[in-house]
Design brief:
- The chain is built from five helices and eleven strands; from the N terminus they run βββαβββββαβαββαα.
- The chain is α/β, with parallel strands linked by helices and 202 residues long.
- It has one domain: P-loop containing nucleotide triphosphate hydrolases (Rossmann fold, 3-Layer(aba) Sandwich), CATH 3.40.50.
- The strands form two sheets. Strands 7-6-8-9-3-10-11 form a seven-stranded mixed sheet, with helices on both faces.
- Helix 2 links the parallel strand 8 and strand 9.
Amino acid sequence: MPPILHVDGLRKRYHRGTLRRQVVFSLEADFTVAAPAIVGVMGPNGSGKTTLFELITGSNAPSAGRVLVGGQDIHGVRTDGRDRLAIHYHQSYQVRRYRAGRPDFLLERPGSDRPLVHLFDEPQFSAQDGYVGFMLAFFRRLRAAGRVVFICLHPTEPFHLDLMRQTCDRFLFVHRGSVTAHADWSALDGDPRFRDYLGQPV
């Protein structure tokens, strides 16, 4: 049985200039989430977190590599069916739309009728509105149903770090276009770049 998500040698490069093209930003990722899990994603602004989510959901075309969801290359799936493999929710839970590439009649249909991977990009969490508990329970229900859940969060409040530590099974730290997988909070906390990101001494 294939892993739920396999990000295989994924690369995305942005260029400027026409005659003398220069790379202005590059993202690289290579990791696997074989079983249902809640994955925490953190990193500085502009490091590539949203770009990574767009590549995983097929709304942004990679420069190289593949994203396999349930064994199926999401960039080879019809654009109107990619949200049956992976779905990207941005901030106040709006669903990100897909960019058209090749005509859909040249692409294959999704092999799933419900999303296998759910990506929440900076969900709005407030300790005062009582919504946090509801969303955390929802994330856990998705995991129990066999899904992979990504939570990308900027820790703007102290409780955000507690939330990520207590909720997530594993972590990705994105820094200057480099995506590093950490098996647990201790491994993440031991990354000097993460401590520097939090503004804490190493």
